[in-house]
Amino acid sequence: MVKFRKMCNNIERGGSFLENPLHRWLTFFDKNSPNELVEEVVKMDMAIQKAHKRIDHVIQDEAALRAYEMREKAIMDWNSAVGYHTREAKIEGKIEGKIEVARKMKADNEPIEKISRYSGLTEKQVKDL
Fold first, then answer.
1. Residue pair 24/4 in contact by the 8 Å Cβ criterion
2. C-alpha distances out from residue 109 to 95, 104, 123, 125, 129, Å
3. Cα–Cα distance, 121 to 84 (Å, whole number)
4. DSSP 8-state assignment for residue 14
5. What confidence tens digit (pLDDT) does each residue in 22-46 have?
6. How many angstroms separate the CA atoms of 93 and 96, rounded?
7. Are 33 and 57 in contact (CB under 8 A)?
8. Measuring CA to CA, which of 34, 45, 50, 109 is 20 to 30 A from 94?
9. Confidence of residue 77 (pLDDT cuts 50, 70, 90)
10. HSE of 79 in the Cβ direction (CA atoms, 13 Å)?
């Protein structure tokens, strides 16, 4: 929205500006858009009209608004959990990779100190492999 707002400040709204569907949607979602401009955009685009009606419906129905907010929270929680598990899996994968390298070096009879230095494992961890 920052780039969109900067662009809006540099050009005059209306006319060909609103011919671009992306500009209409960004105008619709921009909380700083004047109400008159939003109404114009709603009249121009059927998809935006449908979204506007849906938003009005959800805002008026308190139970629907609560359900919507709960769903949004659930989606954010799920995305956070997936991100957490992805980071954990990457860390686990790196550790497994270090262990695999250390095992191969140990099988080739490389010195424990050298294996420790290259794998990042402690000398005790290398000896326990």
1. no
2. 21, 9, 14, 16, 13
3. 24
4. S
5. 888 888 888 888 888 888 889 888 8
6. 5
7. no
8. 109
9. confident
10. 6
Q: Which two tokens stand for residue 57?
A: 């419906």
The C-alpha atoms of residue 57 and residue 51 are separated, in whole angstroms, by: 10
Structure tokens at 9: 């400040």
**For the chain, how far is it from start to end, CA to CA, in angstroms?**
54
Exposed, middle or buried: residue 119 (CB in 10 Å: 0-12, 13-18, 19+)? buried
pLDDT band at 97 (very low <50, low <70, confident <90, very high): confident
Q: What is the pTM of this model?
A: 0.40
Higher pLDDT, 13 or 111: 111
Nearest C-alpha neighbor of 47 from the set 68, 24, 31: 24
Write out the two tokens for 20: 């671009």
What are the two backbone dihedrals, phi and then psi, of residue 120, each rounded to the nearest 5 degrees? 85, 0
Token pair of 127 as six digits = 């000896």
